[in-house]
Amino acid sequence: MNAHFPRILTLLRKEKGISQKHAAAELLISQALLSHYEKGIRECGLEFLVRCADFYGVSCDYLLGRSPDRQGSTLRVEDIPEPDTQDKDSNRSVGTVLPVLNKKLVANSMNILFDLLVKAKNKSLTGEVSAFLMLAVYRMFRIVYAAHPKNQEAMFGIPYQVASRYADAVMQMCEANAEALCKGQSIHGMEPLKQTEPLMLSTDSLSKDYPLFSSSLFNLVQSAEGRIGYRDRGRR
Q: What is the pLDDT of residues 66-113, one digit of tens each?
């Protein structure tokens, strides 16, 4: 059995809020055997795998870590909801203004960034930029997720103590790769960026090409540089 199964098996039981003894009885095995399965000491058979899938209401692919979707579905572009789908139907209080504002600044700026990647027509660059951003969200999500002590760590395959540092190392590699590609260098067999003309930008061109999103990008740049405090540091 693969390395994901013990973790996911444990996660599902804890999310269901039942003891190992209760789960073992429902799955028609001994508690000791279930403990071995959850710890990865022993491998289960196909019959038990299917029984677990039925009991927890998930697919075998999910149990084996082959799909992040509980029903084992493969994610398609048309299945991904628009970023603001939930917002349109929700009622917001004054206290939610700040996260909504920041979300829009980030989302609108990302619209511009990914449109530029489309114009760049370079799959390698798109991959490195996308991986960097996904890892950034992953790191922050794990921090927020870990705020509540009852949230199950078994949701993740990498221990919390090392996840952020590992992700940071990969983010730095993604950033280095993206920079090299943008400078026309081939790295690790990836195709360098050849046509930079579509990426010629100015505040004026950004405003004209992205009238709905450009102000968000300008505000994000200002906010980010304010957070960095480069000018303030220079005065010290």
A: 888 788 776 565 555 566 655 554 555 445 777 888 899 999 999 999
The packing angle between helices 123-145 and 97-120, to 10°, is 160
Q: For residues 154 and 35, what is the distance between their CA atoms, to the nearest angstrom?
A: 15
> 């690790």: which residue's tokens?
188
Q: Are 124 and 116 in contact (CB under 8 A)?
A: no
d(CA 190, CA 192): 6
* Residues 6 or more apart whose Cβ sits within 8 Å of residue 64: 1, 2, 4, 5, 8, 49
CATH 1.10.260.40 range(s) for the chain read 4-63
Residue 141 to residues 45, 67, 135, Cα–Cα distance (Å): 34, 20, 10
**Three-class SS of residue 224?**
helix
What would be the CATH architecture of the domain defined by 4-63? Orthogonal Bundle (1.10)
